[in-house]
Amino acid sequence: MNAGETLRAGKVILLDTDTLPGLHALATLPGAAQSLRELKGSADRRPFLLLFPSLEAVLRHTVRPKGETLDLLRRTWPGALTALLSANASAPQQWIAEGGSIAARVPACAPLRALLEELDAPLFSTSANRAGEAPATSLKEARARFPQLAFFALGEAAPGVASTLVDLRGERPKVLRRGYLAWPPPA
């Protein structure tokens, strides 16, 4: 089976991305988030990051950012930025964190965006590690930690650094985690 078929079958897979290799599951399937939590050994009930193929796909499930914030997203995505945005009424409950936010990213990795387009649905994404461990920084390391999972190398070397996390719900963007991408992006 290819990556799309494996995900549609309800399986968690290992993928390399434009940041860190990760555990991924089709976010539209019941039980997908629970499968990720079980693999990680995590009791944390927070929703996972969602990978989308485009800004337009993100905007279908979030409140449209205004003015400069939307312009910043257009300049940054695709890229290694995870944005906290306010969920809209179309967002499934399992995607929404306490406070009404969705953590969204449009990855720079073109093969990953193509997979997301093929699936016509976002993927839950989380670092390839068990709760309390440091994230795997290479697909080889991730495979050693989760040998039972199917893996798919997308052919783009990841830097092994987490994405930058920015809360875009307020009047001004707030950096919550500095990562691979500089914020704000250069003009």
Shape: globular
Structural class: alpha/beta
Number of domains: 1
How is the main sheet built?
9 strands, mixed
Tell me the CATH topology.
Answer: DHBP synthase
Which strand order does the major sheet show? 7-1-2-6-3-5-4-8-9
Could you estimate the helical fraction of the residues in percent? 25-40%
CATH architecture: Alpha-Beta Complex
CATH class: Alpha Beta
Order of helices and strands: HEEHEHHEEHEHEEE
The CATH H-level superfamily is DHBP synthase
Give the strand tally: 9
Tally of DSSP helical segments: 6
- On the 0 to 100 scale, the average pLDDT is 92
Oligomer: single chain
Radius of gyration: 15 Å
Q: Report the β-strand fraction as a percent range.
A: 15-25%
- The first-to-last residue Cα distance is 42 Å
Poorly predicted segments: none
SSE topology sketch:
Layout: H1 3-8, E1 13-15, E2 22-26, H2 32-40, E3 49-51, H3 55-59, H4 67-76, E4 81-86, E5 101-105, H5 110-119, E6 123-127, H6 139-145, E7 150-152, E8 164-167, E9 174-177
Parallel strand pairs: 1-7, 3-5, 4-8
Antiparallel strand pairs: 1-2, 2-6, 3-6, 4-5, 8-9
Question: What does this entry show, briefly?
Answer:
The protein has 6 helices and 9 strands. The chain has helices at 3-8, 32-40, 55-59, 67-76, 110-119, 139-145, and strands at residues 13-15, 22-26, 49-51, 81-86, 101-105, 123-127, 150-152, 164-167, 174-177.
